[in-house]
Amino acid sequence: MEVLIGTLLKSTLIGPLGLAIYHYPSLELIGNDFRPLFKINFLAGIVAITIIYFTYNWYMSSIVVADANQWMIVVDNGKLVGCGIGLRQFIKPGQKFYKYSS
């Protein structure tokens, strides 16, 4: 069992969600010293959470909603993409939207 664990520790280990691949060839099995592996997995988790946070904020800022008493017109490169009262629309990069009261 110790030989198997030692072999696994010297080979590539996959971190949480498969995001961190950690290779530490000089790691020896001395007691239960998993601190280097924990640090890498912790940092990979922080990076993953940060990426998810900023992606979610970008997506939520791209959804535009007009009030029940407002017209909204969405234009992409001079062409009408959507229009309506109380419209809810995902705005892609490069699209413009205009709101005015009905």
Question: Which tags fit this structure?
Answer:
102 residues; alpha+beta; three-stranded antiparallel β-sheet; two-stranded antiparallel ribbon; 2 helices; 7 strands; 35% helix; disordered N terminus
For the largest beta-sheet, the strand count, sense and barrel status come to:
3 strands, antiparallel
N-to-C CA distance: 74 Å
Quick one: overall form? elongated
The number of helices is 2
Rg computed from alpha carbons, rounded to a whole number of angstroms: 25 Å
Low-confidence stretches: 1-6, 9-26
Summarize the structure.
The longest helix is centred in the middle third of the chain and has 27 residues, at 35-61.
Describe the structure.
This protein is α+β, with helices and mostly antiparallel strands and 102 residues long. Helix content is 35%, strand content 30%. It folds into 2 domains: 2-61; 63-101, no CATH class. The strands form 3 sheets. Strands 5-4-7 form a 3-stranded antiparallel β-sheet, with no helix packed on it. Strands 1-2 form a two-stranded antiparallel ribbon. Strands 3-6 form a two-stranded antiparallel sheet.
Layout of helices and strands:
Elements: H1 2-10, E1 13-14, E2 21-22, H2 35-61, E3 63-65, E4 70-76, E5 79-85, E6 88-90, E7 95-101
Antiparallel strand pairs: 1-2, 3-6, 4-5, 4-7
